[in-house]
User: What shape does this take?
Amino acid sequence: MPQRYRWPTIGLHWLTLALIVAAVVIANILQDMTLSPQKLKLYSWHKWIGITVLFLLPLRLLLRFLDPLDHRAGLTALEVKASAAVHGLLYLLLAVVPLLGWLHSSAAGFPVVWFGVLPLPDMVGKDKALAEVFKELHGGSVYLLLMLVVLHAAAALYHHHLRRDGVLARMIPGLHKKT
Amino acid sequence: MKFIGLLVLTLFTLSAWAQEWKVDYAKSQVGFVIKQMNVPVEGGFGRYTVKATFDAAKPELGVFQVDIDIASIDTGSEEGDGEARRPAWFDTARFPTARFLSNSIKREAAGRYTVSGDFTLKGRTRPLNVPVVLTPQRGGGWLVSGRATLKRSHFDIGGGEWADPSVVADDLEARFKLLLKP
Assistant: This one.
């Protein structure tokens, strides 16, 4: 029985975390900026990063279901359910958050061109009122995602330090189960 | 006398029809598309006036004049609108109006014309040739539509930190659709 996820799964997990942190940091910087070329660049990077998270999601799900590691090993029935619920919601939000951002951008009249190369179709027509709605929903969904990320990390630390069952070590190369 | 009066009135009306047209502003548009970070973004102007004199039988005698109130710009975002009015962009305090005034109209094919003239923006005047499609409307009138590519650097639009064309492209496409009514 393998003790760790395979490296693409591990790599994409941490890459997704890094992308989310970068997108959130950029979003916060953007809020305090007046319009400048730098701001237009950061807007674009924020969108590109979010769309990257969305595009990586199907690949990550595929890898997860193909991974031979039994992630339920050592868990109680209740824990399996809780874990499934949190992971399910995390995956859902990893799709919903960027999709709402994309919708916001479309409704605001600014198409998304991924890395300035791949033009994405507009999800809705230009509509300022609708853009405001998607903006609020995008922001709200981010808070929900961040709360779940904290919960997810807290659970991983609980498993590592208190349960000492090697759950965290499965996702961190070089880390070993506490004894 | 009555008959002659009617004839004069009719001729006057006909010639007026062939001369200056009214513009249905509700169904007209003057706008542009410019790439920002390689993303085509549409914008437009809310206020402009058009004087159009055109007779398909004598297109060369026609004149088109378009005056655009630059402060009525819609760039797609409020902060963009505010920025566009500043000195680095249109400097609307000093240059509130842009004007296109034609000096020749040439028929290219059925319904297709080249309208040549001078375009004045931010105090700079440059010749501009605009390919225009004129579509006759039911009940008289014309739908005048066309596109022309301009370089914002030619008019000193968006200098300084904004000069970098990889953020906001130098080329932009002016687009218009004017509904002329008798």
Observations:
- Chain B is about 15% helix and 50% strand.
- The first helix of chain B runs from residue 2 to 18.
